[in-house]
Structures are given as structure tokens and as C-alpha cells.
Amino acid sequence: MIKDDGYLGFETWWDMASILGVEAAKKQMINWQPTLESYPQDKVYAYINHGRWLADCIYCKTGAEVVFKDDPWFVCFHCFNQIVGGKRIQVKFPNKWNQIEKALENLPENQQNWNIGDLIP
Ligand SMILES: [Zn+2]
């Protein structure tokens, strides 16, 4: 369910994110370069919205990005994590993500929602 089927693997995702991200950054006059360097002090928390795992940016509080369990890293394509030098930060998924996905999988996509703090179904 929860759209990991569109996930093409880390390298493809990262290549795409890098190309699109660099373009988006340029438009905002931000000099962002994709980096595998991380900033371990911070993290974001994943939730489900309309069948997608997302995480909100803790820096600009504007960006929300699709995130992947297989590759739990976050770069905001709004502020490009500039506050921490453009480094990526870790995405925390709930321990019982499997149970959450199972409970939602037969609902229509717009009802596949789970927020941080919601009970694990
Ligand atoms: Zn941001």
C-alpha cells in the first residue's frame, strides 16, 4: 500500500532529488548541493497523509516531503536544510509502521491518514 511501490531505490530517488533539488534551489538563489553528509542532532517524524508517508520540515516549517522507510533521510526542498548547512537529517518512522499500514490499506486513499500521536490502530 502506502505508495512505496513508486520507490525506485535510493540511487534513482537520490539522482532525481539531486537534479530537481538543485534546480529548485537555483530558483530560490540558494546554493545547495546534494550531499550524503548528515546532521545527526536533528530528526523529523513521519506521518501518513492520503496514503503517503510524509515528514514536515522542522527548520522552515513550510516544506513537507515524501519520505521512504528504505531510505529514511530528509532534505526540505523549500529551505534545503540550510540551517544545518544543507545536510540531510534522519526520518523516524513509528516502530509499528507495519501495523499502521495494515490498518489503513483497505481504506480509500484520501482516508489513509495517520498522524504522530494518533493511536496505533
Ligand atoms: Zn524547510
Task: Explain what the structure shows.
The protein has 121 residues and is α+β, with helices and mostly antiparallel strands. The protein has one domain (4-107). It is 21% helix and 22% strand. The chain has two helices and five strands. It has helices at 10-27, 97-104, and strands spanning 38-49, 52-56, 64-66, 73-74, 88-92. It has a five-stranded mixed sheet, with no helix packed on it. A hairpin with a 7-residue loop joins strand 2 and strand 3. It is elongated. The mean pLDDT is 87. It binds zinc ion. Zinc ion binds at residues 57, 59-60, 62-63, 76, 78-79.
Strand order of the largest sheet: 3-2-1-5-4
Strand count, sense and closure of the main sheet?
5 strands, mixed
Overall pLDDT metric = 87
Helix content: 10-25%
The shape is elongated
Counting DSSP E segments of at least 2 residues, the number of strands comes to: 5
**Low-confidence runs of at least 5 consecutive residues:** none
Structural class: alpha+beta
How many structurally independent domains?
A: 1
Distance between the termini: 16 Å
Bound molecules: zinc ion
Beta strand %: 15-25%
Taking all Cα atoms into account, the compactness measure Rg is: 15 Å
Q: What is the tally of helical segments?
A: 2
H/E element sequence: HEEEEEH
Quick description:
The chain has helices at residues 10-27, 97-104; strands spanning 38-49, 52-56, 64-66, 73-74, 88-92. By secondary structure, the protein is of the alpha+beta class.
Write the layout of secondary structure elements.
Elements: H1 10-27, E1 38-49, E2 52-56, E3 64-66, E4 73-74, E5 88-92, H2 97-104
Parallel strand pairs: 1-5
Antiparallel strand pairs: 1-2, 2-3, 4-5
The protein binds zinc ion.
The site of zinc ion (ZN) has 8 residues, from loops.
